[in-house]
Amino acid sequence: MKKLWGGRFKSELASEAKCFSYSLSTDFELFDADIELSIAWAKALAQAKVLTSAEKSKIIRGLGAVRKKFVKFSNPHQHDPAFGELCAMYEDVHSLIQAELEKSVGAVAKKLHTGRSRNDQVTTATRIWLKKYIPLFIKKISGLQTALVGFAEKNQSVLIPGYTHLQRAQVISVAQPMLAYTEMLERDKERFQDALGRADALPLGSGAIGGSTVPVSREFLRRELGFAKILDNSMDATADRDYVIEVLSAAATLMMHVSRLSEDMILWNTSEFGFLHLDDAYSTGSSLMPQKKNPDMFELARGRSGRAFGYLVAALVNQKGLPLAYNRDLQEDKVALFASLKTCSITLNVLKGAIATAKIKEDACHLAAKDSFLYATDVLDYLVSKKMSFADAHEAVGKIVRYALEENIELNEVPLSVIQKIHPPVGELYYKIFSPKVSVTKKKTTGSTSPASVRAQILKWKRVLK
Ligand code: ARG
Q: Are 342 and 393 contacting, i.e. CB atoms less than 8 angstroms apart?
């Protein structure tokens, strides 16, 4: 098939070189964006008197026809064998559109590439694509947040041990970790939004490296394509992909959060914790052990975070050491970008369903929250309220804990006589400390796991996410 650069070459590209370098199977994703920027470019060329008004209209109509012809290959129909054939024929999405435009409107199509290069074209298309995709992607993160908040709301009165160092620490509401992940995901959304802010800049009009001899108005192109600003340096515009790295970095951080969330769900789902029941629709069995019900969706989410980290590192290494300006290495940015966002996107969807359908096993939670040692901090607070200094109280509770451990009894089974030997003012009230509800209700700070604070957090999220 006719290439955009055939003239200086005597022979065809070797077939393995074609296979190695053709990128249509990846950058077809930019099809709509490339049509859109080509339409804007045709208008700019007409303004610059490179195209007559009739030629401009013909080209724009032709681009519309090309769009119509290939819309069938938009996701998820890319398994169509005809798409495979197309990918073997054309070097990239720009070559495909140019060739198809020529088929559609004839020789006038050959004027469209005047003054532009695929170097400013491809990065403009990628930025246009991100401007459409990222807002939708952010909505997917909100979807997972909504599932987490729903789960938190339903189970806010269920109290469980909270862990530090994966050791039982203090009593918390089931809602508190769910709302913690909701906060993390909110910052992930901000990171994507922030990255998008910097990606929202126009490279088109920068040519291959040094700008364009055609006096197109870049301000017109900016307005036409809806970019917030124009990139001021043609080499920066064509050669940097920092905005791709920023998106990949936001995706890696998001998946790190998703992986931690998954790990907590996996732990809660073990027989050892027993806090969680996963719906059959989001669990799998073992081929050998009939009793097993495995949290595979969460394991895969945890596992796939590795891909997202890998794509970020791939993009960083890809650009490190590249001399200015454009190098073909940069074609790889899209492989990482599309694959990473696709992985994140499906992961968000599946986890949303898995969390929305999961159920808390209240009895097991209740039992676990009875562990008297969870209340050591509450005992400490009680001693402080009995006029002991914090440091002395810490020491004293340490002694009560040691006594209980040595006697192999619970903390609330230590006789009052023993406790009073350590701190005489302690009374029967000591034994009232060991209640999950009392423990969480005593928390007074905003953002705490007290019922009032949990309610306030849920209310906030319902407002933010609606
Ligand atoms: N497919 C190429 C890419 O994604 C388009 C730009 C090609 N430019 C070139 N000078 N070979 O980077």
A: no
Q: Report the Cα 382 to chain-centroid distance in Å.
A: 44
Q: How many angstroms separate the CA atoms of 140 and 361, rounded?
A: 28
Q: Which of 3, 26, 119, 127 maximizes ligand 1 atoms within 8 Å of its Cβ, making it the mutation to test the pocket?
A: 119
Question: Is the CB of 118 inside a 6 Å radius of any atom of ligand 1?
Answer: yes
Smallest CA-to-CA distance from 40 within 225, 168, 200, 228 is with 225
Inter-residue contact 63 to 163 (CB < 8 Å): no
Catalytic residue among 286, 366, 385, 389: 286
Q: In angstroms, rounded to a whole number, what is the distance separating the alpha carbons of residues 132 and 139?
A: 12
* CA pair distance 140, 144, nearest whole angstrom: 7
**Looking at ligand 1, which atom is closest to the CA of residue 118?**
6
Residue 408, phi then psi, degrees to nearest 5: 60, 45
Written as one letter, the residue type at 25 is: S
C-alpha to C-alpha distance for 415 and 84, rounded to whole angstroms: 78
User: Can you spell out the DSSP letters for 254-283?
Assistant: HHHHHHHHHHHHHHHHSTTT--EE--GGG-
Per-residue pLDDT of the chain (466 residues; tens, 9 = 90+): 667 777 778 888 999 999 999 999 999 999 999 999 999 999 999 999 999 999 999 999 999 999 999 988 887 566 788 999 999 999 999 999 999 999 999 999 999 999 999 999 999 999 999 999 999 999 999 999 999 999 999 999 999 999 999 999 999 999 999 999 999 999 999 999 999 999 999 999 999 999 999 999 999 999 999 999 999 999 999 999 999 999 999 999 999 999 999 999 999 999 999 999 999 999 988 788 888 789 999 999 999 999 999 999 999 999 999 999 999 999 999 999 999 999 999 999 999 999 999 999 999 999 999 999 999 999 999 999 989 999 999 999 999 999 999 999 999 999 999 999 999 998 999 999 999 999 999 999 999 999 999 999 999 999 999 9
Three-state secondary-structure class, residue 423: coil
Helix (H) or strand (E) holding 172: strand 167-173
Q: State how far the Cα of 94 lies from the Cα of 96, in Å rounded to an integer.
A: 5
Catalytic site includes residue 53: no
Domains and CATH numbers, the chain: 12-114 (1.10.275.10), 119-368 (1.20.200.10), 371-465 (1.10.40.30)
